[in-house]
Backbone:
């Protein structure tokens, strides 16, 4: 494929992904609403589990952290040196700012990532007419 064909193929894939993403969001919202309704009904009827011929459902309860005071959490982590409470991910934005300031962060090295910056160009009537005239 030449560059023009690659760009056109990329545009088609981008449009398809956007369509799938929109559909996924719609389906995810519907699923979340159904889950909410199921929890409500199961709790109203005093059930923790039930089934049909097609599927079974049960209520699963788990404990997840909800940070209400980041300063207190960081103070605890620094005092106990227990960093396992945090997920291992470095902020790219903060790291890039430190690099701009000339700071060296021990344990980190910059890695260049190349990505295609792709923008869809919207065709106007003038562009379509010009294209017809060129043919």
Residues:
């Amino acid at each position: 494929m030449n560059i023009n064909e690659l760009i056109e193929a990329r545009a088609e894939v981008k449009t398809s992904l956007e369509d799938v993403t929109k559909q996924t969001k719609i389906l995810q919202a519907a699923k979340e609403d159904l889950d909410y309704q199921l929890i409500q009904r199961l709790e109203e009827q005093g059930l923790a589990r039930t089934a049909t011929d097609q599927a079974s459902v049960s209520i699963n309860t788990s404990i997840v952290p909800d940070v209400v005071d980041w300063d207190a959490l960081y103070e605890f982590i620094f005092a106990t040196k227990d960093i396992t409470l945090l997920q291992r991910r470095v902020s790219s934005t903060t790291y890039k700012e430190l690099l701009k300031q000339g700071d060296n962060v021990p344990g980190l090295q910059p890695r260049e990532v190349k990505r295609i910056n792709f923008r869809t160009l919207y065709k106007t009537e003038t562009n379509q007419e010009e294209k017809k005239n060129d043919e």
Observations:
- The helical segments are 3-44, 70-80, 92-100, 125-134.
- The first strand starts at residue 49 and ends at 51.
- The chain has a mean pLDDT of 89.
